[in-house]
Amino acid sequence: MKINETTINVRYQETDMMGVVYHANYLVWFEIGRTAFIEDLGFKYHEIEQQGVYSPVVDVTINYKKPVRYGDDVHVVTWVDDYDGLRVTYGYEVRYKEGGVAVKGTTKHVIVKQDSFRPVSIRRSFPDWHDAYIEAMESYE
Q: Do residues 115 and 123 touch, judged by C-beta distance below 8 A?
């Protein structure tokens, strides 16, 4: 399966009073990883939005295993976890540079029309994206 690894520079303002990264910031990091993954596939979010659609998150799972602190070297590993032609689920792991997983999670997305928020088939409306998702799930690196 195709993966993307994106380095995250933990900023002080991302931490809470306990000195660890505030839990909601991992969702921002997931988005950074997802955007980089999509760019690796040869696409950009703004290009799909110019075609009159959005890709909202419809479900999130997240499992916090170990805290990340200011100054830690981490990266987000992103891949396509599941895809059915309508919905795509991205998988994520926030990993320490020296090894070990801090956080695991997924986000599920659909493509919807901007004006009505009605779902759009990726398979039919965006065949290039469809093919890229299928290839990303099947490829080995």
A: no
Every domain of the chain and the residues it spans: 4-138
Is CATH 3.10.120.10 correct for 4-138? no
110-117: long-range pairs with CB below 8 Å, 24+: 110/55, 110/56, 110/58, 110/86, 111/48, 111/53, 111/54, 111/55, 111/86, 112/53, 112/54, 112/55, 112/56, 113/52, 113/53, 114/49, 114/52, 114/53, 114/54, 115/52, 117/54, 117/56
Q: Report pLDDT digits (tens) over 119-133.
A: 999 999 999 999 999
From residue 139, give the alpha-carbon distance in Å to each of 1, 34, 84, 133: 5, 17, 17, 10
Residues that are catalytic: 16
Q: What are the tens digits of pLDDT across the range 49-93?
A: 999 999 999 999 999 999 999 999 999 999 999 999 999 999 999
C-beta separation of 54 from 105 below 8 A: no
